[in-house]
Amino acid sequence: MFVPRTVKRKLPHAVPAELPPRALQPISTGSVAAQPESSNPADTSSKHPPRAPTGPVQQPKKGPNYSEEDLAWKHIVALEMLFAPSSSVRFAAKSIDGSSGWIHLSHIISHRSISNLRPSPSQIALATALRTIPSALIELSADGYHVRQRELPFNPLIGTDDEMTIYVEPVPAKLTDDALDVAVALRKEMSAEDPCLPIQRVFGLGRGYALVLLSSIVDESTVKNIKMPMTWMVLTKAEHDRRDVEYQRLIQSDYDALRRRRRVSPEPRRREEGRLTPPREVGRLTPPPLPSLPPKSRPASTSTPTPYEKGLILHLSHLHEETNKPTIQSFLAQVANRQQYFDKNPSAQLEYDGAPIEDATDTNLVHVQYVDYTKPSDTAYVRLSTPAEAILLARALTFQHRVMRAKDDCKGTSVGENSERKYVVGNVLEGERERIYWEMLEDAKTKGKRKRKAGDQDRSRAVESVGEVQQLVVNKAKGTHMKFD
């Protein structure tokens, strides 16, 4: 199935700056103008030859080398887009020889859609383009300085923008760097009396593909009958959307099938009952098979082995919504050190009134493997080295009742158990909640590996790129009627 380029979105490359056209040189009349003599005699005596450049000479950049025919096509397409039915531009018109609706070219070249063309067109250039290339939409006056919009010889089928839009992939792909170049390439191939003309707008989605708004409803039969460039891929907007949805559905189905295959564990191999008879050789007698022993009965497995170590994930809640991972890690380290001080000094627990105390030791009691946190949120998941560290932090947070008052608050402030402000709470994931989190973690790691090329990046970063897992775990847990504290 043909997949449009829009599923591989790439930012368009920057268009090189274009220099303004060189000024026209005055026409020589054959006579040499007299040079004004200098009144200062020192000027004539102090003439020196030009000094040689000391550094590399920078040559001036040259703009695109357009031919007269290319410029005429650009002017015609720009004028037709300016006078398109959907255009809201209005000019002051006047009557000439009894006919009304004539607009002077001086008003048109001052409009930004025409003045932004490079090179900037003049009135004579626009008049020459209208005489060279026929247009069914614009009429030029006899004097060559006025234009007006003609009445179309047909009634176009007006519909919604999606019904009148086509999706194109031009060749070469760099045509989409300038939307006017796409319109010019289409206008050259299409007939002047085509009911789909004029081209109203071109939307450049990225390098290599664009959407073109025509003046009539376009369907599959119209796309086949319209004369388009042979090497281009042209689709209706409806067909492009249908293929895009179909492609996304196929990708999602393949991803779901992969997840199902990973979740289903292989059945344990069972020992065959009896032994196979060896192959019978021609001309030799085969001895009877030995009696087989009854198969040994294996005890039924009551628990399925888990691919992860249990009790390592600590779920934190009531954090500051604008905090960060280093602050969370430092906050947990100080909570653990403070709890060690309380355990070594039981009397300090009774005298403790919420004032900050100095840590008893600088040794890190807990070793955080990683912090799964995404702003803005007041919850996070922390993976520790051992289950004992997770239990220690959960008990310490419940005992100390500390609140993070700022996003960079590493110590926190102790509050009462019945305080209106919610203190930081930690719960060790167990059972179904823990299994769901590890499944989402494996999915995030697999997704990251598919995006990377082999050997380009360190595979250890896959464990850290799980910031999006948190919301997925919460959503899936809500579906199974579980609550996260």
UniProtKB/TrEMBL annotation:
Which spans does this entry mark as compositional bias, Pro residues?
286-297
Q: Where is the composition biased (Basic residues)?
A: 1-12
Compositional bias, Basic and acidic residues, is annotated for 264-275
Per the record, its GO cellular-component terms are:
ribonucleoprotein complex
The molecular function GO annotations come to: telomerase RNA binding
Composition bias, Polar residues:
26-44
Mind listing the GO biological process terms from this record? telomerase catalytic core complex assembly
Q: Which chain regions cross the lipid bilayer?
A: none
Which protein is depicted?
A: XRRM domain-containing protein
Q: Which residues form the XRRM domain?
A: 307-468
Q: What is the top-level taxon of the source organism?
A: Eukaryota
What organism does the record attribute this protein to? Saitoella complicata (strain BCRC 22490 / CBS 7301 / JCM 7358 / NBRC 10748 / NRRL Y-17804)
Which region ranges are annotated with the description Disordered?
1-66, 261-308, 446-465
Task: Write out the entry's keywords from A to Z.
Answer: RNA-binding
